[in-house]
From TrEMBL:
<keyword id="KW-0808">Transferase</keyword>
<dbReference type="GO" id="GO:0071555">
    <property type="term" value="P:cell wall organization"/>
</dbReference>
<protein>
    <submittedName>
        <fullName>Vancomycin resistance protein VanK</fullName>
    </submittedName>
</protein>
<keyword id="KW-0133">Cell shape</keyword>
<dbReference type="InterPro" id="IPR016181">
    <property type="entry name" value="Acyl_CoA_acyltransferase"/>
</dbReference>
<dbReference type="GO" id="GO:0009252">
    <property type="term" value="P:peptidoglycan biosynthetic process"/>
</dbReference>
<keyword id="KW-0573">Peptidoglycan synthesis</keyword>
<keyword id="KW-0961">Cell wall biogenesis/degradation</keyword>
<keyword id="KW-0012">Acyltransferase</keyword>
<dbReference type="Pfam" id="PF02388">
    <property type="entry name" value="FemAB"/>
</dbReference>
<dbReference type="GO" id="GO:0016755">
    <property type="term" value="F:aminoacyltransferase activity"/>
</dbReference>
<dbReference type="InterPro" id="IPR050644">
    <property type="entry name" value="PG_Glycine_Bridge_Synth"/>
</dbReference>
<comment type="similarity">
    <text>Belongs to the FemABX family.</text>
</comment>
<dbReference type="GO" id="GO:0008360">
    <property type="term" value="P:regulation of cell shape"/>
</dbReference>
<dbReference type="InterPro" id="IPR003447">
    <property type="entry name" value="FEMABX"/>
</dbReference>
Length: 377
């Protein structure tokens, strides 16, 4: 198989995505317009004139060397990862180096390992277990192992940090399978605390609505609560214009692509979540909750409403996004994985982020600059 890579229009890219059951929202043309600090382009893979693959490339210029860029494909590209990878990735490298890329960063949408909720809970309960990778899980995915081996042999460099979170996409995620299941099936799969909290929210009169003006006043209410959550939980919040752009651009591709859920108790906003859907894959992208009235369980009510909507849309998976692989009881992140494990889903390890240096001297300089930036120098 001889493939060629060439630019495609956003419309062609979007049409290709619609032929697939699901593609990451980070690989939609609209996402390139959300990431305003990057330059974006859509690329297509052609086999004898037929479009067989596509990818969104985000270009980040090098400080003081703007004509050279890091070419980043978050959770992409959308290609046949079970096939001969040199046939797919060699023409990508040739195209990008000719246009000034000093390196390519890929995040293949390919899993390597899976752990059931029960296996994760056993790991959390075992004081001898500090990391998810120490827990016996399901059989390893042969495709993930093959992709990892191929990337290593072809000179790609893994960029996966020890804690699972880096500058890019998390390697470990938590997913709730939905295919072939009903609402009752999903509820039965949740732990007792989750079921109790969903019932508690309903009994307390928590009402969850989908925002009608998702880019207007209700988004501002979400953002105010999100900033409050960031101050409480000690993370840096994104500014309001980022969410305004995200909702505007994603909605322009599909009116059902993004939804803002608001949970209120007697008129008070107690929780809010932002959900995204592409085809049969739904994501919990952002969440916020008030410190007051936590006992009415607004966050569980929002999650349950999103899960029910994902089921109604025919989704095969509800994606709760990143977790850290640390299971030690004294780790501040273990509470997050315990919250997500309560849904009854599964922890998943993906291949992760990989870099291919195309211009090694510039790549080393960029890596040094990024390391200094992260350390605050």
């Amino acid at each position: 198989m001889v493939l060629t890579v060439a630019p495609i229009s956003p419309a062609e890219h979007l049409q290709f995505i619609r032929t697939r059951r699901s593609v990451s929202f980070l690989q939609t043309p609209a996402w390139g317009r959300v990431k305003t600090e990057w330059r974006s382009e859509s690329l297509g893979w052609y086999d004898d004139g037929r479009l067989v693959g596509a990818g969104l490339v985000l270009h980040r210029p090098v400080p003081r060397l703007e004509r050279f860029t890091l070419a980043y494909l978050p959770e992409g590209p959308t290609i046949d990862w079970t096939g001969e990878l040199d046939a797919w990735l060699d023409p990508l490298a040739a195209y990008l180096i000719a246009r000034g890329a000093f390196a390519i960063r890929l995040v293949p949408p390919v899993r390597t390992n899976t752990w059931t909720a029960a296996q994760v809970k056993e790991g959390i309960a075992d004081p001898a277990v500090a990391r998810l990778t120490q827990v016996p899980g399901e059989p390893a995915d042969p495709v993930g192992a093959r992709v990892t081996d191929w990337l290593t042999g072809a000179g790609w460099l893994p960029q996966n940090p020890e804690d699972g979170f880096g500058a890019g996409q998390p390697q470990f995620k938590y997913e709730l399978p939905l295919a072939g299941r009903t609402e009752d099936d999903v509820l039965r799969g949740m732990n007792q605390l989750w079921r109790r909290n969903i019932k508690k929210a309903a009994k307390e009169g928590v009402e969850v609505t989908v925002a009608g003006d998702a880019a207007g006043r209700e988004l501002k209410a979400f953002h105010d609560l999100y900033v409050h959550t960031a101050e409480r939980d000690r993370f840096t919040p994104r500014p309001l214009p980022y969410f305004e752009t995200m909702i505007t651009e994603l909605s322009s591709e599909d009116p059902d692509r993004v939804r803002l859920y608001l949970a209120r108790h007697r008129g008070d906003l107690v929780a809010a979540t932002l959900g995204i859907r592409v085809g049969a894959h739904a994501w919990y992208a952002y969440g916020a909750s008030s410190t007051e009235k936590r006992e009415v369980r607004g966050s569980n009510a929002c999650q349950w409403e999103m899960i029910k909507d994902a089921l109604a849309a025919g989704c095969g998976v509800y994606d709760l996004r990143g977790i850290t692989p640390t299971l030690a009881a004294d780790d501040p992140h273990v509470g997050l994985i315990q919250f997500k494990v309560g849904t009854g889903g599964r922890a998943v390890r993906y291949v992760g982020e990989w870099d291919l240096p195309l211009r090694p001297v510039i790549y080393r300089a960029f890596s040094w600059w990024m390391a200094r930036r992260r350390s605050g120098h």
